[in-house]
Amino acid sequence: MDSNSSRGKRTSLQPLRAAGRQRVEELLEAASDLMAERGYEATTMAEIAARAGAKIGSLYRFFPNKEAVADTLVQRHIAVLEDECAALAKRAATLPPDVLADVLIELLVTLHPRVKSLSALMEARTDKMEIRDRARGHAIAGIAAALRVCAPGLDEALARDIAAVVLNTMKILRGMLAKDAPATLGAPEELRRMNRLYLSDRLAPFRNI
């Protein structure tokens, strides 16, 4: 069986010693970098170990397969997103839609160093794990919660639909800024303007209901 595919549901080892915890951090950082650069599918366990300067046995000691590595990364990314979205939701009631649009569209861009592999994991093409759907679901839920605070009359289903559009806009902007997506010098600002107009149009009818 491929070492990068599922080997059952064995869980990751939680190290008790400081040296073990440090090694896990190095392995996860290497995995996050590689997945951000190459995508989930193209990243291998051997490459993760090599990037971290570790022996492959050390990686398998803590993570039984690549799915376990990705699952740990998603859990960490979700915790960061939940904290940021909770803080944003507290502010959203005082923000007009166009300002909220700017705040939201910058969120994933500014958070990227802390959740660098999130986009890759949300785009993972695999039927062997629930990681992709969980990553997408939490990101959409967090954005939708902020939208509903800004526009109290917005129902949950529509909020999630709008949140999905905003999330994809955020990803496109990050790609433009990283030069991973086609862009001209002024294209990122045009995308921000488009997002402001979109959210103003969609949220305004539900602001005072």
Q: Which whole number gives the mean pLDDT?
A: 86
Helix-strand string? HHHHHHHHH
Shape: elongated
C-alpha termini separation:
56 Å
Helicity level, as a percent range? 55-70%
Record field, number of beta strands:
0
For the sheet with most strands, the description reads: none
Uncertain runs: 1-8
CATH topology of the largest domain: Tetracycline Repressor, domain 2
Can you count the helices? 9
Strand content: under 5%
How many structural domains can be distinguished in the coordinates?
A: 2
The CATH architecture of the largest domain can be named as Orthogonal Bundle
Name of the CATH first level of the largest domain: Mainly Alpha
Radius of gyration: 19 Å
Instruction: Return the structural class.
Output: mainly alpha
Domain HTH tetR-type: 21-81
Pfam family, one: TetR_N
DNA-binding region: 44-63
Protein name: TetR/AcrR family transcriptional regulator
